[in-house]
Amino acid sequence: MARVYNFSAGPSMLPEPVLRTAQAELMEYGSSGQSVMEMSHRSKVFDAIAKDTEARLRRVLNVPDNYRIGFFQGGASTQFAMVPLNLMITGAADYLVTGNFSKRAAKEAAKFGRVNIVANTADCNYTAIPDVDALEYSKDASYIHICENNTIFGTRFTKLPQVEGIPLVADMSSCILSRPTDVSKYGLIYFGVQKNVAPAGMAIAIVREDLLGKAGPAVPDMLNYKTIIDADSMYNTPPCWCIYMTGLVLKWIEEEVGGLAAMEARNNEKAALLYDYLDSQDFYKNPVNKPDRSIMNVTFTSPDPETDALFCAEAAKAGFVNIKGHRLVGGMRASIYNAMPREGIVELVAFMKQFAAQHG
Ligand SMILES: Cc1ncc(COP(=O)(O)O)c(C=O)c1O
Fold first, then answer.
1. Nearest atom (ligand 1) to Cα of 192
2. What is the H or E stretch that residue 170 is in?
3. Ligand 1: does its nearest atom lie under 6 Å from the Cβ of 75?
4. CA dist 306 to 8, 69, 311, 329, 331, Å?
C-alpha cells in the first residue's frame, strides 16, 4: 500500500488513526455483531454513537449550553437555503460576498427575501477580505452571513462582523475545527463535513437556541432546523456513517492532537512552511493579500498555465495529488486540512524547489 499526500479541497484526507479504527470496527462495532453501516439508527448502540459524537463536538469546540446541534443531509449547499428559510424573519439579510460559495449562498437567499450585499471582493478576484468594521450593515437585517474561509481563493476572515442584536451566520465548511472558535460570537455556524470532519454526505449546524422555531409554516420539515434538532437529528434516517466518523475524528483531535489549541499550532506551522517558502522565491506566486491568507487552502501559480499543468502532472507522479487549482483561479491549490501531516508539506516544498530549479 502506498498512500499519497492528498491536497484535495474536499473530500479530503482523513487522519490515518481514524481510518485504522474504522477499518478495525468495520465488520463488527464493539460486540454488536454488525457494522455501523448496517445498524438501525434507532438502536441503543447507534444512539450512543450519535450522543457521543454530539457531546465530543460540544467539548472540543466548547459550544455554550444555549446552542443546539443538528446533523443534516444535503451538504453545505442545502444550508444556503435553510439559513434564510429559518432565520430571515425581517425579510432581509446582509451578505458579505468574498468568494464563490458566499456568492452562491447570497443567490440562494435572494429567493426568499431581500439580500443586501454589504461587501463584494469580486473586483480583486476575491484575493482579499474586506475590513468588517468599515462596512455599513442594514438596520433591518435578520442576520449577517459570511463564508469564514474561502476554499477556492485561499482567504479567511481574521476578524468577524459583530453588530449588536444581529446574529452572525458563518459557513465554516473549510475551517471548522482548525483552531479554537468562540461560538458565542455567532448566531449560527454551519459546515459540510467533507474537509476537516468526516467523509462527504453531511452538514452540521450549531444554532443559538433563541433563533430556532421562527420558520414559516410552508418550510418543509426536512429544511426546518427545529424539526430536525428537536428530534435529535433522527427525524428521518440520519447519515449514520458520517456521524460515526465525525465522532472518531473528534476523538482524534481530543485525545491524540490535544484539542483545538494544539490543532491550531500544528496548522499554523504547516501553513507557515508553505507560505514562507512561497515568499522566499520568485518562481511561484501567491496572489492573496498577506493578512488574509488561509491556513487551510494555499493557492499559488507558476510562471504560466502550461507550467502549472506540468507541475500538477509531475506532482501527481511524485505522490502529491489533487493539487490543481479551482477552475475560477487556475494554478495550484494545496488544501492542507487537519489530517495533512507536516511531512506532506515538507515533502511538497522540497518537490516545489526541485521543480522550480528545473523549469525556472
Ligand atoms: C466554504 C464552502 N462552502 C460550501 C461548500 C459546498 O459544500 P457542499 O458540497 O457540501 O454542498 C463548499 C464546498 O467545497 C465550501 O468549501
1. 10
2. strand 168-171
3. yes
4. 21, 46, 9, 14, 10
Q: Where are the alpha helices (DSSP H) in the chain?
A: 16-24, 44-61, 75-87, 100-109, 225-230, 240-251, 260-279, 305-317, 342-359
CA 267–ligand 1 middle distance (angstroms) = 20
Q: What's the rounded mean pLDDT across residues 116-126?
A: 97
Residue 211 burial (CB < 10 Å; 0-12/13-18/19+)?
buried
pLDDT at 286 over 90: yes
Options 3.30.240.20, 3.40.50.10420, 3.40.640.10, 3.90.1150.10; CATH for 16-256 is: 3.40.640.10
Mutate to test the pocket of ligand 1, among 73, 151, 322 (most ligand atoms within 8 A of CB): 151
* 68-87 pLDDT tens trace: 999 999 999 999 999 999 99
Number of residues assigned to the chain: 360
pLDDT at 1: 76
Per the CB < 8 A criterion, the answer to whether 301 and 330 are in contact is yes
Q: How far is ligand 1, taken at its centre, from the CA of residue 193, in Å?
A: 9
Ligand 1 contacts CB of residue 196 (under 6 A):
no
Backbone angles phi, psi at 225, to 5 degrees: -55, -40
Topology of the domain comprising 5-13+259-359 = Aspartate Aminotransferase, domain 1 (3.90.1150)
Contact 38, 220 (CB under 8 A): no
| CA 67–ligand 1 middle distance (angstroms) | 23
**Contact indicator for 6, 16 with CB cutoff of 8 Å:** no
Question: Which of 72, 150, 173, 329 most suits a substitution to test ligand 1, by most atoms within 8 Å of the C-beta?
Answer: 173
